[in-house]
Amino acid sequence: MAVVGFPVTFIVGHLVDRFYVQYILALAFLGHIVTLFILLFTDAWWMAIMFGVVVWGVVNGFERIVLNIVWPNYFGRAHLGSIKGLAQTVMDGHGSALGHFSMIG
After folding, report:
1. What's the rounded Cα separation, in Å, for the pair 32 and 60?
2. Domain membership flag for residue 62
3. Which of 37, 39, 84, 95 has its CA 20 to 30 A from that of 47?
4. Mean per-residue pLDDT for 83-98?
5. Overall pTM > 0.90
6. CA-based end-to-end distance of the chain
């Protein structure tokens, strides 16, 4: 996934310079939706490998760059570390809670 995602970051960096970052972020999230539908119809092992390497690599290459631009653009740089730290803690906490809940149910 990283082998595919790394070159994509250069392309996305170029796109972010030319277009609004909100549009590129929307494109990345749309890519996540499309990848879930592709995964839904994956029925062979080789398709799963191609999905994980190519499709997921491209989408994560988009997201990796765009999110690192969006956070400072919207929240500024002065308190970015504390804001991202709190947000990540909340997101991880919710993810862990949902994972634990799904294991019980």
Report:
1. 9
2. yes
3. 95
4. 73
5. no
6. 32
